[in-house]
């Protein structure tokens, strides 16, 4: 903002000031995307101007639009779509920010045909977790609140961490905090159990927290790439819930492991361990 | 074991593959004694269904003898003779509880994939692409059947395989299509498609009290079967205005219910049908709704359009204005086979119907590629092919 003295001396500054204020209230592009837009737009405009001719002109115009978008933070397209990505930068309503802790959380919800108490009891015994999260190898209870987890990442890396229960309301809510930075997914989370209307069972909401992952958070705020990243994160939460639901409703998780196929295979694929049923 | 495997459009081969195993505690393994090729298998054969992988085992209409059961199976034991319904249902989710078996929450390991297409996922199906779960199918010597207590129905002595095999799919499909028409005394039901599903829809419509059944197709042997065996009035649609003919035949009212037993690969000789075909070949559209359009236009005001299927993607230029203004009811969906197994088995036992009427060809499993070929091209008066492993 220009200082008051400058505005009074040069009336044109009043116009610029008013324009700036007008545009700033309509900022609808989040910072990471603005940066990308500015840099990309600048490069595009520059190369367009150098090229000359019709195609060069086109690139220059495109670059100019991106530059404008990046500098002012205002996108006409977003305005037309009634999207304000400065206020809601995440690609999905299932991803929201945790402002007080500089992070974000990913949540999904499913309805499971069991009582809240049954579901709470099964989830609370963390040693059950490998049965619905296949990448978790084992969970060992340390004491009433703490447990030690061992997992294998998708890249084959061995991960180990400790988790501690921070909130425990039987039949209603379990919240946990992860220590160390070699966790499978997220830095903490919570799962809530609410009775569903009309005997449909329980509405289960699983939230996974990500705190201090600035790079990941910025990636989420970029169009396209953010959407894909968001899908991965959401999918992990959703598939965990889905397997939990199948296990609790039917006693098993649907699988194709070990089934025959006409593809050339070296040996029959490893059978998934069937495991003891849930009563 | 030998199994019919998909390797691409118009390319199915019988290969040697490992035998299926018990994987989950509610599984059973069935030794297959009879299996059939379905009209919807032709969508796979023609390459219209996405998410197929080379080597996938096909087949969702099968029956046989239980040879192994998982440790939590209670209702079946080795030696039981069973027919297996084509949708796989867990029996415990909200949808199974409501008897909407083909909408089961817990039987599709690729639910995420179907959700990305349709918003929510239905049940897994045997041998019908990874969108529907990727389960190995039943055109083979053995099959692994999940949730064995929920699906398979035991067959009593005194009935041949051919009499009960079609409980797995096409008989319940035709029956549900007719039941969905909400047939009242005096009603006329028009059925597009005289393939096996259409034939069972004709029989079922009469069973459920229809006064008249009008069947529409253009293949002579199918029209003949519909007329002589199904006792339907038949229309050969080539070059004629089906909607107008139906109007005349029904005293200017239109059929009370219309069944689309054709689905996404509809054929026709009108300009609209030719346009659909071109668009689909150019991959500009996914499904050909020619029959659906006709059914909507032909149906009387306040009537029902019943769609046993199959559709996969999006439809161009469907006259929804007509549907709305005429206050039509639409009933659709994959068949909830489990709901109809017992009642239809009883009808077979009581002699009300012998489903084997629809079989025209019987081959060994090894001749499956030939079976697919003549079924697709409707050669040799082919209507239904049964395979014996």
Explained architecture:
The complex is a heterodimer of chains A (279) and B (389). Chain A has 279 residues and is α+β, with helices and mostly antiparallel strands. Chain A has helices at 4-9, 11-24, 31-51, 53-72, 76-80, 116-124, 214-220, 225-250; strands at 95-98, 103-112, 136-141, 146-152, 158-169, 173-179, 188-195, 202-211. An 8-stranded antiparallel sheet of chain A has the order 1-2-8-7-6-5-4-3. In chain A, helix 3 (31-51) runs antiparallel to helix 4 (53-72) and helix 7 packs across helix 8. Chain B is of the alpha/beta class and 389 residues long. Chain B is built from 13 helices and 18 strands. Classes of the chains: A alpha+beta (279), B alpha/beta (389). The A-B interface holds A 111, 113, 200-201, 235, 238-239, 242, 245-246, 249-265, 268, 271-272, 274, 277 and B 1, 3, 5-7, 13, 15, 17-26, 53-57, 70-72, 90-94, 97, 105-109, 111-112, 124, 133-136, 140, 144, 146-147.
Compact summary:
The complex is a heterodimer of chains A (279) and B (389). Chain A has helices at residues 4-9, 11-24, 31-51, 53-72, 76-80, 116-124, 214-220, 225-250, and strands at 95-98, 103-112, 136-141, 146-152, 158-169, 173-179, 188-195, 202-211.
Keywords, please?
heterodimer; A: 279 residues; alpha+beta; Alpha-D-Glucose-1,6-Bisphosphate, Chain A, domain 4; eight-stranded antiparallel beta sheet; 8 helices; 39% helix; elongated; disordered C terminus; B: 389 residues; alpha/beta; Quinone Oxidoreductase, Chain A, domain 1; Rossmann fold; 2 domains; seven-stranded mixed beta sheet; six-stranded parallel beta sheet; 18 strands; globular
């Amino acid at each position: 903002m220009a200082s008051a003295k400058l505005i009074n001396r040069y009336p044109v500054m009043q116009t610029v000031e008013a324009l700036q204020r007008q545009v700033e209230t309509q900022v609808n592009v989040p910072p990471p995307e603005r940066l990308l837009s500015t840099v990309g737009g600048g490069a595009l405009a520059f190369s367009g101007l150098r090229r000359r001719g019709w195609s060069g002109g086109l690139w220059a115009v495109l670059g100019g639009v991106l530059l404008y978008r990046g500098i002012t933070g205002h996108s006409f397209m977003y305005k037309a779509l009634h999207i304000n990505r400065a206020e809601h930068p995440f690609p999905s309503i299932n991803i929201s920010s945790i402002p007080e802790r500089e992070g974000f959380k990913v949540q999904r919800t499913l309805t499971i045909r069991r009582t809240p108490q049954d579901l709470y009891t099964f989830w609370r015994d963390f040693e059950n977790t490998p049965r619905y999260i296949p990448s978790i190898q084992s969970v060992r209870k340390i004491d009433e609140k703490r447990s030690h987890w061992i997992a294998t990442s998708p890249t084959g890396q061995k991960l180990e961490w400790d988790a501690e229960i921070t909130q425990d309301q039987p039949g209603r809510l379990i919240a946990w905090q992860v220590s160390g930075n070699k966790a499978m997914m997220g830095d903490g989370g919570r799962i809530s159990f609410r009775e569903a209307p009309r005997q449909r069972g329980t509405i289960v909401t699983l939230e996974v927290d990500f705190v201090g992952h600035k790079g990941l958070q910025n990636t989420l705020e970029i169009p396209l790439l953010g959407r894909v990243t968001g899908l991965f994160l959401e999918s992990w939460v959703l598939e965990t819930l889905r397997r939990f639901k199948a296990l609790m409703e039917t006693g098993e998780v649907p699988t194709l492991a070990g089934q025959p196929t006409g593809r050339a295979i070296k040996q029959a694929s490893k059978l998934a361990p069937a495991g003891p049923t849930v009563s | 074991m030998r199994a019919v495997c998909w390797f691409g459009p118009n390319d199915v081969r019988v290969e040697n593959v490992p035998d299926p195993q018990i994987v989950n505690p509610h599984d059973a393994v069935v030794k297959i004694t009879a299996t059939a090729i379905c009209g919807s298998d032709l969508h796979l054969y023609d390459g219209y269904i996405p998410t197929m992988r080379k080597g996938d085992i096909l087949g969702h209409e099968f029956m046989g003898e239980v040879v192994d059961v998982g440790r939590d199976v209670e209702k079946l034991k080795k030696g039981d003779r069973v027919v297996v319904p084509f949708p796989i249902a867990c029996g415990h989710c909200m949808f199974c509880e409501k008897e909407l078996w083909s909408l089961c929450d817990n039987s599709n390991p690729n639910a995420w994939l179907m959700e990305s297409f349709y918003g929510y996922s239905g049940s897994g199906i045997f041998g019908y692409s990874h969108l529907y779960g990727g389960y190995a199918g039943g055109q083979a010597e053995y099959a692994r059947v999940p949730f064995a207590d929920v699906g398979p129905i035991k067959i009593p002595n005194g009935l041949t395989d051919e009499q009960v095999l079609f409980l797995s799919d096409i008989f319940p499909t035709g029956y549900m299509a007719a039941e969905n028409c909400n047939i009242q005394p005096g009603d006329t039901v028009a059925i597009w498609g005289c393939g096996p599903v259409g034939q069972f829809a004709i029989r079922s419509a009469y069973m459920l009290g229809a006064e008249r059944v009008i069947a529409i197709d253009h293949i002579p042997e199918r029209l003949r079967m519909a007329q002589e065996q199904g006792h339907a009035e038949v229309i050969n649609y080539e070059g004629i205005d089906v909607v107008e003919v139906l109007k005349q035949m029904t005293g200017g009212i239109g059929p009370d219910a219309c069944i689309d037993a054709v689905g996404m690969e509809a054929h026709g000789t009108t300009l609209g049908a030719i346009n659909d075909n071109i668009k689909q070949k150019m991959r500009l559209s996914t499904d050909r709704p020619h029959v659906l359009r006709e059914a909507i236009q032909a149906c009387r005001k306040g009537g029902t359009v019943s769609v046993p299927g199959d559709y996969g993607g999006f439809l161009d230029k469907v006259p929804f204005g007509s549907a709305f203004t005429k206050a039509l009811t639409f009933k659709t969906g994959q068949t909830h086979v489990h709901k109809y197994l017992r009642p239809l088995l009883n009808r077979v036992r009581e002699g009300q119907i012998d489903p084997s009427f629809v079989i025209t060809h019987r081959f060994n499993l090894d001749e499956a590629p030939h079976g697919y070929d003549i079924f697709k091209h409707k050669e040799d008066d082919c209507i239904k092919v049964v395979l014996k492993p």
